[in-house]
Amino acid sequence: MTQRHAVIIGGGIGGLCAAIGLRKAGLRVTVLERAREFTDIGAGITLWPNALRGLDALGLGGRIAPLLMPQAAGKLRDHTGRWLTRWDADRVERAFGRPLLAIHRAQLLDLLRDALPADTVHPGVEVTDVDRAGTVRWNGGEVGADLVVGADGIHSTVRTVCWPDHPGAAYCGSTGFRAVVDLPDRRELSGVIGKGVEIGLVPLTGERLYWYIAERAPRGTRHDDRRAHLLRLFAAWPEPIPELIERTPEHAIMQHDLLALDSPLPSYVAGRVALLGDAAHAMPPFLGQGGCQAIEDAVVLAASLAQPDVGAGLREYDRRRRPRSQAIARQSARAGRMGSQLANPIAVAVRNAAIRLLPPAMTARAAVKPAQWSAPTIGTG
Ligand SMILES: Cc1cc2nc3c(=O)[nH]c(=O)nc-3n(C[C@H](O)[C@H](O)[C@H](O)COP(=O)(O)OP(=O)(O)OC[C@H]3O[C@@H](n4cnc5c(N)ncnc54)[C@H](O)[C@@H]3O)c2cc1C
After folding, report:
1. Angle at which helices 105-114 and 13-24 cross, to 10°
2. On the chain, which terminus has fewer CB atoms closer than 10 Å, C or N?
3. Range ranked top by mean pLDDT from 72-76, 98-102, 197-201
4. Atom of ligand 1 nearest to the CA of 14
């Protein structure tokens, strides 16, 4: 059999994992990435046990281990500082054999690129068109492939071209702020939740802390001085929140409106084209599973493509990935609506009382359940 060629559009977490997996399955791989340079500032990302199993299946488990920061516990307070729940991160490890971990996104992307031969990823190539027969076009070039993977993120060109009736990404009602600061001696994941707003603190290796905020706001809300806005918003919140914002430089704070695909796609496959990651099922970040699902997609795609018939492999990929990833996207949206997006004071009081009364294992269940996933074996490796 002649070696099959896969062209992957997008060199983010999903595209790079797909490249690694498809090479492992015996395909020749080309990754086309719009960005000219890899200067990711990024922030942190949590990796649940399902993602770690996926990274193991890609053969990356050993290499990534030193970069991962285990989260010692999960604690949640309300905006007055009252404890709502504390869930034992050991429970995650006991249940899944792996802890909840976090990594700096730029380190993860560097590691994934380093796992590929130097001529695999082509930066500065913005794909403008694809067709179901496997032709990929960009300004000044085109290439034919046995398999085209649209891993081009939430505003996917591949999705727009192949699924023209899909409405695309919608605003989920909250805007997100993120930053990484130097902060030694922190090992616990913790969060504080208020009316329409939450902040999460996630320790990273290198004595750094990643924080993220989701704040209900009209789409497109921007502030001349993000730090000043956050200092005002959190002025009366318990420590260390005000201090943390205080010590975060304005230039380190990123803001993005949180978007998701509200309308689930009827298929992740069209002819020789497959979608994965945010292009297929972008979800709000309330469960920290978007990137984990992109890793799962990549592993399952590679395992499905180990069979010689591309069409059959893609049908298997769609069958195995669409129900699970779309269910997790729905759970993620629900977690936001029932969690930090609640702004009505009575609803917030009921939510907080329920969290306090329920056993921690039950409150953690929504977050922990998606971690139940076993990775298939890819090819002969
Ligand atoms: C605030 C926030 C917090 C999050 N936290 C977590 C978390 O803790 N854990 C987790 O698992 N997930 C998290 N996520 C989700 C996660 O970031 C995404 O699900 C993940 O990055 C998706 O990866 P991807 O490769 O599919 O897409 P992307 O990361 O968007 O990559 C797409 C790539 O395609 C390129 N591209 C786009 N268009 C083209 C084109 N036409 N031609 C060529 N290249 C193109 C882009 O430049 C980019 O490099 C979070 C998301 C947000 C917004």
Report:
1. 30
2. N
3. 197-201
4. 25
Q: Which position has the higher pLDDT, 203 or 38?
A: 203
Question: Any idea which residue has 């269910």 for tokens?
Answer: 327
Boundaries of every domain in the chain: 5-170+260-371
Probe target for ligand 1 pocket from 127, 278, 283, with the most ligand atoms within 8 Å of CB:
278
Any atom of ligand 1 within 6 Å of the Cβ of 71: no
Domain 5-170+260-371 = CATH 3.30.43.10: no
pLDDT in tens, 355-367: 999 887 777 777 7
Average pLDDT over every residue of 19-35: 97
Ligand 1 binding pocket includes 277 (Cβ within 6 Å): yes
Could you tell me if 166 and 275 are in contact, meaning their C-beta atoms sit under 8 angstroms apart? no
- Average pLDDT (73-97) is 84
- Is residue 276 predicted with pLDDT exceeding 50? yes
pLDDT at 100: 86
